[in-house]
Amino acid sequence: MSLFLHYLSMPYLLMGIELTLQVTALGLIGGLLLGIILAGMQLSRFWLLAAIARGYTVIFRGTPLILQMVFAYDALPHIGIKLPAVLAAGLALACNEAPFIAEMLRSGVLGVDRGQLLAGQALGMTPGVLMRRIIAPQAIRTMIPAFGNEAVSALKNSSLASVIAVQELTLRSTQLASSTFDFFSIFFASGLIYLVLTGAISVIQLALEWLLDLDRTTKPRGLADYLPWRRVDLTPKPEQANKAAPPEAPELKETPPLALSIEDRARRAATVARNNVAVEVKHLRKAYDGNKVLDGLDITVRIGEVVALLGPSGSGKSTLLRCINHLENWDAGEIRVGGRKLGFDEQGRKLSPRAIANERANVGVGMVFQQFNLFGHLTAKENVAGPLRWVHGMGRFEAERRALELLERVGLSHRADALPRHLSGGQQQRVAIARALAPNPSVLLLDEPTSALDPELVNEVLEVIRRLAIDDGLTMIISTHQIRFADEVADRVAFLNGGVILEQGPAHEVLTNPRHPLTARFLSVMEAERPKDAVA
Ligand SMILES: Nc1ncnc2c1ncn2[C@@H]1O[C@H](COP(=O)(O)OP(=O)(O)OP(=O)(O)O)[C@@H](O)[C@H]1O
């Protein structure tokens, strides 16, 4: 025992720790930098870059680290690169770690919900802002456990540096044992030192996980709660949550139904007819792998007009909305929003993704998605305020004030600090509407805003949209299957089938007296499927 303690505190062994840590740090930092480059190449649109990265991965993942260390130390001098042993070992470890770290980064990036990226693009975020504000924060959280594992494995792999005579812990232990023949005490002491080092990495990993845990309550907890075998559920318990939450505010003020009378409708129609054109779509064609989805579609929407797009599943409603916001490319035809060709310059050349993002923000086309697509790592308030700061350059205070104002308008100011996953579907969709309204869009596109909701949550969302249409006079294009809602709110209904508009006209007229047989058939099927007690 006394010998063991003697070796444990022996300066000769302790100095070996320093070299072990140096090689590990070089390997991890170099591996991270190289891994970022490799992951970027693998995710690149240029196949040559992706192929080079793949080739690198095959070589460095498929050969033993010990050979790579010998190569870095003994072969590089033949091409004039003579590295000190520690640097050669660090370089080899970095090159070996890079493909593993690149895979972690790639899966972290690809793991971020694609819907959130679409929402970010629709809000006018450039690829850089999307990466910094939406992708990286979520990817990093999911990568921490894997990175912890990688750090432990790099620390253990650093012992292979002994093969090129780096005087790290393992080599010093071996040398000491060969001269004293006290193998047991020396290797036991050296094993314990390795355990302490890997334990320190695990503690750092847990601390980072704790710091970045979105569900962490602000109340400090005992350290024991964060030990691996004692991980506790950090989400507030129902009784805590009830205590913490302010009293449930009435979500939407009770108001009389907002449906318009026949006279109101006629007045609205006359006003809208005098307004300028907000959105103009001419002869739009779009196919996916030869499958025609939009087949020469034309539609014009005036400022203040609400158009409901109806049609069977697959008729092209969502595709049309995505094209209007240039989230989707099209094959032929023209789209103008506020007179501007979104996504093209004066000469008709396609703009870069960054320039398209800036144009989207300037032209002001808001979009609400079927699946809400809220940013999962941000609270309701941050979901609304964040894009105002990052895209429109608004100050933090001003952006938060605007976010609270909009959340109040959709009846959710009391849930401003809740994460999306702690909100019901209807509440999430109302936050998504507030987020889309925040930059004062000139046009709001809503892609089946209630399809993903349970029937009892549909009305709270429809009520918000109804107010935007009737009270605020917002220009809206809504793809929906809610026939009664379309009748109450839309000025015009357009019925799509096979990528063209088969019939369009004043909402009430088309819905009560359709002229095209397919429209009539669609409406009667929808009517038959509607639950008897449904409001819309
Ligand atoms: N990214 C895609 N790749 C290939 N095909 C696609 C893609 N997006 C849509 N489609 C196809 O295009 C057609 C139109 O889809 P779209 O989502 O626009 O229809 P929709 O009228 O909105 O339908 P729904 O009411 O079910 O949402 C469908 O046949 C669909 O399978």
From TrEMBL:
What residue intervals traverse the membrane?
12-39, 183-212
Domain (ABC transmembrane type-1) ranges: 13-205
InterPro entries per UniProt: AA_ABC_transptr_permease_3TM, AAA+_ATPase, ABC_transporter-like_ATP-bd, ABC_transporter-like_CS, MetI-like, MetI-like_sf, MetN_ABC_transporter-like, P-loop_NTPase
The alphabetized UniProt keywords are: ATP-binding, Cell membrane, Membrane, Nucleotide-binding, Transmembrane, Transmembrane helix, Transport
Domain ABC transporter, which positions?
279-523
Region listing for Disordered, in residue ranges = 237-256
Q: Give the bilayer topology.
A: Multi-pass membrane protein; Peripheral membrane protein
One family name in Pfam for this protein:
ABC_tran
Where, per UniProt, does this protein localize?
Answer: Cell inner membrane; Cell membrane
Function, as annotated: Involved in beta-(1-->2)glucan export. Transmembrane domains (TMD) form a pore in the inner membrane and the ATP-binding domain (NBD) is responsible for energy generation.
Family (UniProt) = Belongs to the binding-protein-dependent transport system permease family. HisMQ subfamily. Belongs to the ABC transporter superfamily.
What NCBIfam families does its record include? HEQRo_perm_3TM
* Name recorded for this polypeptide: Amino acid ABC transporter permease/ATP-binding protein
Source organism (scientific name): Bradyrhizobium denitrificans
